[in-house]
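Running log. JK asked me to keep both predictions on one page so they can be read side by side. First protein, sequence followed by its tokens:
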Amino acid sequence: MRVSHHISSIFYLLSSIFYLTASAQDTLPPKKLFINFSGHYGFIAAHHKNMSYLIKRHVPAGELNFILQTNGEKHWEQVYKNPEKGVGIYFADLGNPQQLGQAIGFFSFINFSLNPDRKFNLYFRSGNGIGIITKPYSRINNHKNNVNGSFINAFVNLRLSSVFFPCRNLRLETGIGLTHLSNANWSLPNLGINIATINIGIGFKKSEIRSQKSEIRNQKSEEKQNPTYFFTLIAAVGVNQLSPGSEKKYASYTIYASEWKTVSEKSRFCIGGDLFYEMANIAASKRDTIFDTSNKLNNLQAGVRFGYELVIGKIALPLEMGAYLFTKTTSNGLFYHRIGVRYYVNKHLIINYGIKTHWVVAENFEFGIGYRF
């Protein structure tokens, strides 16, 4: 009886130690949700000589953010040292109410920590969403606006911020940023609007969200999600325009194949090839006699491309550059580029959103789906 009692006591003690150890490993710090208000002041950067007459005054702006401080619940959060993520609303008076109006943005973002676990945190923000310009080009009512031709635009927000927490429930920040709005040639004109600002903001903690168990995947599952080598094939479509004020829009079709090599949990590189079929090239050639449009193959363009993806869990941010190997039109130059967002839904399916450009001149959006082999 006494031996049995001692064995039971030892078993209970070991079980308690194991339970406490497991609980400590599975318990994560709470995720903190902040409501943040920021004021901005800056100017529109005149990146083209033909737009300087539109810039009348400095640009005041305001921003509302819902910011979630991650806690390492997912593997990618640990890879990036628990960044902040959230959604925001942006409003700016463009300093020229008659010809430019106001800019409004609805976007999501990630604040990447550049010096984690410090009292003063330095963050780099990458934000993307939908933007609205209230006074776009109109051939009848606003013909002097030569920078933007549509109400709806792509919205990009980049920022370098210093953040200080004077207490647990208060968040103070200041920073410098660049906000870009354009429509990727969906509707001309499309020089785009770039707003450079400084900002100051204050945030209040709204709540804490506790996680009971870590969702960190083991090494094998990570290798399956991001294999060292893989091949992708993506088909995409887009639309562009040839002249401002025109109702006519032209479809663009793209197929791109890529061989990828994963070099870290954050990065992978590729070499690939692209096929393009731009209906706008046919229309331009009929107008300017660039090539024989009776042979549809003359409109085919082919290129070779090098690329990089910044990997954030299942999301990847591509940055790619290519050169045409075959093209009958060289009006946009020899080189082309691509930026965007790709979502790797599972082991095979890819959802693609991109913008094809020639240096800083956008040609069209690319919406598509792909397959990973």
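And the second, directly underneath as requested:
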Amino acid sequence: MPGGGGNNSNRILVPQARTAMDQFKMEAAKEVGVNLKQGYNGDLTSRQAGSIGGQMVKKMIYSYEQQLGGGSAPNFGELQSLQNIRQQNSESQTGF
């Protein structure tokens, strides 16, 4: 709701984690190419906000899967870089 009134279901459940979550959001925004600034970002489109949230969820799922698997796979950023390289190689081989 504009003006900050009403219930906000997006509250941080562990207040000490606020700084880490803000940093996490900034990293996700940078990874998807959205210029996020400190404070109010009401000028973002729904698509931009959704891409940031989606990237955060992908990273959280990846992290959780790594914990479950007990593996030492590359971190999420390295994984994305590997996927980008594979995609570029595939495109250069097919000409698309």
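Observation for JK regarding the second prediction: The mean pLDDT is 79.
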